[in-house]
Design a protein that fits this description.
globular
Length: about 220
């Protein structure tokens, strides 16, 4: 399920890149963000395993189960590479490969590329977990789970925040491995973890506080 999660993220990333060329200005990012959300919608609908979504389980995961995180990231990466390899021989390849390489080169050559990766990854991690938790919480409040899942994904894709798994598509098409590529990938992972645990920890401490208040009465 981790590999297949990477596949749908890779397909969604390809659709995002293609939309940047088809639609002018910011419309490409907006439409692309909506198309990229297909990946998260499929992942939540079919209970696939995505690294950035699994991060939200850290507060309740326990140390013994932490091995699942790197394994999930590895499986997601294999899935993205599989999708990227197929897309490479599809009709949209000539459009999205140069666009992917251009986007990642811009990030790698930025003046504060390290801080950009961490901060961008953190913002993405927050939005991913809002998406995941919306699927669980929205129906209880009479809200649309689909809208809650899709909207945060559109926002992070539109803003260009760094998703550690989706970034693998860009690295694949960049076609080179350097210390800066590895560093950027790892810093984006760190940012995703920082942002991904914020909401779960806040909810955990909120529930703990409520339980203490209830027991003291």
């Amino acid at each position: 399920m981790g590999i297949f999660a990477g596949i749908v993220i890779g397909i969604g990333g390809g659709a995002f890149l293609y939309s940047l060329e088809i639609f002018p200005d910011g419309w490409g990012r907006l439409v692309g963000g909506f198309l990229f959300a297909l990946g998260m919608y499929a992942i939540i609908s079919f209970h696939m395993r995505l690294f950035t979504g699994m991060i939200g389980e850290i507060p309740v995961m326990g140390v013994k189960n932490m091995w699942r995180l790197p394994l999930c990231l590895l499986c997601n990466t294999l899935g993205v590479f599989f999708a990227a390899g197929i897309i490479k021989y599809s009709p949209i390849a000539d459009v999205i490969i140069p666009r992917a390489a251009s986007l990642i080169e811009g990030k790698l050559t930025a003046e504060n590329w390290g801080w950009n990766a961490v901060c961008s990854g953190t913002l993405c991690g927050i939005l991913i977990n809002v998406s995941v938790w919306s699927a669980k919480q929205a129906p209880r409040r009479g809200l649309s789970a689909s809208f809650g899942v899709v909207l945060p994904i559109i926002v992070f894709a539109f803003c260009g925040f760094d998703h550690s798994v989706a970034n693998m598509l860009y690295f694949y098409y960049l076609g080179e491995l350097s210390w800066r590529v590895v560093g950027y990938a790892l810093l984006a992972v760190l940012g995703n973890i920082i942002g991904g645990v914020m909401l779960p920890f806040i909810v955990f401490f909120r529930d703990w506080h409520r339980a203490n208040d209830a027991s003291s009465k």
